[in-house]
Write a structure and sequence with these properties.
The chain has 103 residues and is of the alpha/beta class. The protein has helices spanning 11-26, 41-45, 61-70, 80-83, 89-98, and strands spanning 2-7, 32-37, 50-53, 74-77.
Length: 103
Amino acid sequence: MRIIVVCGAGASSTFVALRVRRAAASRGQEISARAVPIEAVDAALAEADVLLLGAHLATGADELECRADEAGVAFAVMPEEVFIAPTGDAALDLALAAVGEQT
């Protein structure tokens, strides 16, 4: 599964993506996760299965969800506690749930 983590400029999402990759590796799952700044979302959707959106961008979630849906990409907004969690387990679980996989 390929996950893109979207925030404003891509800085904080870099840390979330790193934690998601670590959580996936600890579970033995082959998952890629990368940070994407909001202005690069459309290009990134072509190579993604799930878009995880930072809670601070939730006001624009409807538009991004439509764009993800048009690209056939699952979508979820990360609650703040998931976005700032010290591990990537909750974010990974959210991504898996978005594509209908058991956690």
